[in-house]
Amino acid sequence: MSERQIPLVDLAAAHAEVADEIAAGFARVLAATAFVGGEEVAAFEREYAGFAGVDHCVGVANGTDALELALRASGVRAGHEVALPANTFIATAGAVARIGARPVLVDCDPDTLLIDPERALDAVGPATRAVVPVHLYGQCADTAVLAAGLPDWVRMVEDAAQSQGATRDGRSPGRGSIAATSFYPGKNLGAYGDAGAVLTDDAEAAGLVRALANHGGTAKYRHDVAGFNSRLDGLQAVVLRAKLARLAAGNAARRAAAARYDALLGAAASAGRLVLPVTAPGNTHVWHLYVVRLGAGGVDGADRDAVVGKLNAEGVGAGVHYPVPVHLTGAFAHLGHRRGDFPHAEAAAGRMLSLPLFPQITERQQQRVVDALVGALG
Predict the structure, then answer these.
(1) How far is the C-alpha of 121 from the C-alpha of 234, rounded, in Å?
(2) Are 302 and 317 contained in the same domain?
(3) ∠127-130-135 over CA atoms, to 5°?
């Protein structure tokens, strides 16, 4: 990569920090031939549970499986309904659909772009068995309002794929509930392939998740429930352990970088050309993404895409998360929604873009990102 290229996420820089440690860990796994499960996986599960402030961590193959397993362990079955935000990655809805349940979409808060908890509560009906607050971009949704308002037949299942280390009012995802996270390579804690985990204080739920992810097995050749194969492997656990030791420092570096962006983009925001990200009260943000929105007047997706194209031409790896709300995707057209049903999610989808953000980003790189962005705005 040339010096002029600023990636959206610098995975090469992240690897350089842990390369020797990972090589030594891979050698341990190869010597022990502990490729599926094993001590590296068990050690990572203990260490991540401690980091996340929960009693149990169950490593699985990927974040989508983690969410499906958490939903299944919470009693969601075919024919049930699950409320979730329209503004999320499609995997949130996909995990629900794989069970045979029906996603019930709700709009997001216009400022934070997180699920609107009051709308989520309004969406609860007799067939609802779970509500999924998505802790998007690195900060937590308002789970307190949900927890206080949900009837006793509805579980809160948190999608914490983008919030490793985030808290709200001191509470971490999965504490007192159940949460799923993803260790996809670009996450704050990223593996070298797909990986995920389920987090909870509920020992029974953790045990069920572990069984479901191991073909329903509770011991060798004992299968008390019908499950499938979704296990974390030893090599990925080595990577995750090495990176976990650096995660708190990395999150702090992300917060510092986000604060620099706030300062550098203040003039453009004051002029109405940009809307900067908003951190909800009580949140400790870990800035998985730094998402800005173009000014509201007359802006649409084509304008935003043109700005992203100009940034990319300047070597700035800007991206978009996510350009199409779930209800407007072909995969979920059968839900019967149309444009206008979730106006806050739709407005954000046409205006937002993500700027490069990673722990190793320098002030000089951020200044060049901002200069390129201001120039692209015209």
Answers:
(1) 40
(2) yes
(3) 145
Query: Domain of 197?
Result: 11-244
Q: Are residues 207 and 255 in the same domain?
A: no
Is residue 2 included in any domain, yes or no? no
Q: Which of 279, 277, 292, 300 is nearest to 373 (CA)?
A: 292
C-alpha atoms less than 13 angstroms from C-alpha of 56 in its C-beta half-sphere: 20
Amino acid 297: pLDDT: 66
Residue appearing with tokens 């200069």: 371
pTM of this prediction exceeds 0.90:
yes
| Token couple for 2 | 């040339």
Within a domain: residue 373?
yes
> For residue 362, with 0-12 CB atoms within 10 Å meaning exposed, 13-18 middle and 19 or more buried, which class applies?
exposed
Tokens standing for residue 18: 């842990």
Q: Is 215 found in the same domain as 194?
A: yes
Which amino acid makes up residue 10? D
Residue type, 308: V
Which token pair is 172? 């971490």
59 shares its domain with 146: yes
Give the number of C-alpha atoms closer than 13 A to the C-alpha of residue 282, restricted to the C-beta side.
10
CA distance 167 to 132: 16
pLDDT in tens, 113-141: 999 999 999 999 999 999 999 999 999 99
178: which strand partners?
157, 200
